[in-house]
Specification:
By secondary structure, the protein is an alpha/beta fold. The protein has two domains: 156 residues, Rossmann fold, CATH 3.40.50; 155 residues, Aspartate/ornithine carbamoyltransferase (Rossmann fold, 3-Layer(aba) Sandwich). Strands 9-8-7-10-11 form a five-stranded parallel beta sheet. A four-stranded parallel beta sheet has the order 2-1-5-6, sandwiched between helices. Bound molecules: phosphoric acid mono(formamide)ester.
Length: 322
């Protein structure tokens, strides 16, 4: 694996999941793999789980991590080619990324979308410019449109919950449901989850949301889209709850109907479904306390699994450099 920014960088999803689960069973089994190697983790935006789990994962492989909150502590970066830098940006990524490429063996980056201009956000300029100019492998810690480490974790958690990778059981029904929120959020987690579940191909996949919240078909193609949440939830084995803002009329909140919040009453419609959310979560807006604190919730297990997903990805990148 050269870079990890999308499911398209992965040849074998099940193999990567097995690798992550092997690390969960024996966290230090490859503790020599990353000795004398360094991962630089650049944050243009805040993070708790991604930052800490990546650090723990790297350390368990013997790697050193350096965290740089470039968004709040570094020089303001310019990403546009041929920019006339007479504004607020101080340094071009063309100059900064090659320097980072000399300091580190792997560069891991978190950026968010602006939610102002869809074309710009969906071009993934920031992460692409780092790939172009750093000269070392790049790992996405969440980009403008995708969150692949989260999605790998989610597939891992579903597998874990199913008890085996396939085992000959019927396909689980996975429902991704939109939920209300207080502010417009990126589509990254929903896009990425859709992309990974579709690529994994071992589930009946349904996406439900109010009218106007259609995601890009680039990621959802293959899923059944339903506007009736109750209908969609019927017989679900897994319910993935997430808010996202509008894609077509980009970055807006249209409907914010509190009826879309996931509650125990709604879970009655499912096949005793397990409930997932990437966190952080707005309690009693996206999901009720009773769901989050109840036996159906996988959210803590899911967040804990971030370590194993990150460790599997870092080790895949490190291996060829040995
Ligand atoms: N799920 C997730 O990416 O969490 P953080 O934003 O805290 O990293």
């Amino acid at each position: 694996m050269k870079n990890f920014v999308s499911v398209t960088d992965v040849n074998d999803i099940d193999g990567l999941v097995r690798k992550a689960l092997a690390y969960k069973a024996d966290p230090f089994k490859d503790k020599q793999l990353g000795v004398n190697k360094r991962v630089g983790c650049l944050f243009l935006n805040p993070s708790m789980r991604t930052r800490l789990s990546t650090q723990v994962a790297a350390q368990q492989l013997g790697m050193e991590t350096i965290i740089f909150n470039v968004g709040s502590e570094g020089w303001a970066l310019e990403f546009e080619e041929e920019a006339i830098m007479s504004g607020s940006s101080v340094e071009h990524v063309k100059d900064a990324a090659p320097v980072m490429g000399k300091y580190f063996d792997i560069l891991a980056i978190r950026t968010f979308p602006s939610l102002k201009n869809r074309e710009d956000d969906y071009s993934e300029l920031y992460i692409k410019q780092f790939i172009k100019y750093a000269g070392i492998p790049v790992v996405s810690l969440e980009s403008a449109t995708l969150h692949p480490l989260q999605s790998l974790t989610d597939i891992l958690t579903i597998n874990e919950s199913l008890g085996s990778l396939d085992g000959g059981r019927k396909k689980p029904k996975i429902v991704l449901t939109w939920a209300p929120h207080v502010k417009p959020l990126p589509q990254c987690v929903a896009n990425s989850f859709s992309q990974w579940v579709n690529a994994w191909g071992k589930a009946d996949f349904v996406i439900t949301h109010p009218e106007d919240y259609e995601l890009s078909e680039k990621f959802t193609k293959g899923a059944t889209i339903m506007l009736d949440q109750d209908e969609a939830l019927k017989g679900a084995d897994f319910v993935y709850v997430k808010n996202w803002s509008t894609y077509e009329d980009y970055g807006k909140i249209y409907c914010n109907d509190p009826e879309w919040m996931m509650t125990n009453e709604k879970l009655q419609l499912t096949n005793n479904a397990k409930v997932m959310h990437c966190l952080p979560v707005r309690r009693n807006v996206e999901l009720s306390d009773e769901v989050l604190d109840g036996p159906s919730s996988l959210v803590t297990q899911e967040a804990a699994n971030r370590v194993w997903a990150a460790q599997a990805v870092l080790s895949e990148i490190l291996k060829p450099t040995l």
